[in-house]
């Protein structure tokens, strides 16, 4: 019997109060995902950012959602701002792994013609563009209705269809926390494959929405660029992130200090 390879994240995961983080570079994350794709078990990948942490911080009794993040095979730091702030609570991230960049790298570097690829979410027009961009790939698509996660029958239909398709790669693009919940639920019946919670990444990949210029990304200001481009949808979200950021950082720091056996001022 062959011993499975020891992956990078297994020895590096940082267990924080709100959710774990695997401190990997983009290259290491791609390596890990390639390993998960060939595993004989099902895996899912989450990419928490400050918006995710805010949701977990404001709902401390939501053990179900917190467990979903803890059970993820990979939990990658999606936010450059969060990456910069991690030393405040005693953790060092080697790099941010933005979900949009990760998704593009997976399509460009990992996906092969023989892979079965399923995308859950995204308009048909987006998937058509994606298929034109990557004509060598075998892409299947399920487009749930708005608010599907609250309709058990539709959720079960999606889970059943996913099991039947048995994808190697599953991209779930239905927004957070719906995509994380669905990824976890699919794991109850899936035989294998790796699911990635990708949010709006397909919109950037297909050019439906534009990424910030490279220098803006490098300055950790892509959030500001996106807010200026779409203030109606994002201004309130980012304002709430800013308001709750001190509490989020305090919760994360308290966990790290407690693990070290040192008191923390409250």
From TrEMBL:
One of its GO terms (molecular function) is hexosyltransferase activity. Pfam families: Glyco_tran_WecG. The keyword Transferase applies. The keyword Transferase applies. It comes from the Bacteria. InterPro entries: WecG_TagA_CpsF. Keywords: Glycosyltransferase, Transferase. NCBIfam families: wecG_tagA_cpsF (TIGR00696). This is Polymer biosynthesis protein, WecB/TagA/CpsF family.
């Amino acid at each position: 019997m062959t011993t499975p390879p020891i992956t990078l994240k297994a020895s590096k995961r940082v267990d924080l109060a709100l959710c774990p983080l695997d401190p990997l570079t983009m290259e290491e994350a791609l390596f890990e995902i390639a390993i998960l794709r060939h595993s004989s078990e099902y895996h899912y990948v989450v990419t928490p950012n400050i918006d995710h942490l805010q949701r977990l911080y404001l709902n401390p009794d939501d053990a179900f959602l917190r467990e979903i993040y803890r059970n993820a095979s990979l939990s990658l730091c999606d936010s450059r701002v969060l990456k910069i702030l991690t030393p405040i609570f005693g953790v060092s991230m080697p790099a941010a792994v933005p979900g949009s960049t990760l998704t593009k790298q997976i399509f460009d570097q990992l996906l092969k013609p023989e892979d079965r690829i399923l995308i859950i979410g995204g308009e048909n027009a987006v998937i058509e563009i994606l298929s034109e961009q990557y004509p060598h790939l075998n892409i299947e698509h399920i487009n749930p209705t708005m608010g599907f996660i609250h309709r058990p029958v539709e959720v079960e239909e999606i889970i059943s269809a996913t099991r039947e398709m048995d994808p190697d790669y599953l991209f779930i693009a239905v927004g957070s926390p719906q995509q994380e919940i669905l990824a976890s639920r699919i794991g109850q019946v899936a035989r294998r494959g790796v699911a990635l919670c990708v949010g709006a990444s397909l919109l950037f990949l297909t050019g439906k929405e534009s990424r910030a210029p490279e220098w803006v990304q490098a300055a950790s200001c892509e959030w500001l660029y996106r807010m200026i481009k779409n203030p109606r949808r994002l201004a309130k979200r980012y304002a709430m992130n800013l308001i709750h950021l001190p509490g989020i950082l305090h919760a994360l720091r308290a966990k790290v200090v407690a693990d070290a056996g040192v008191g923390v001022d409250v």
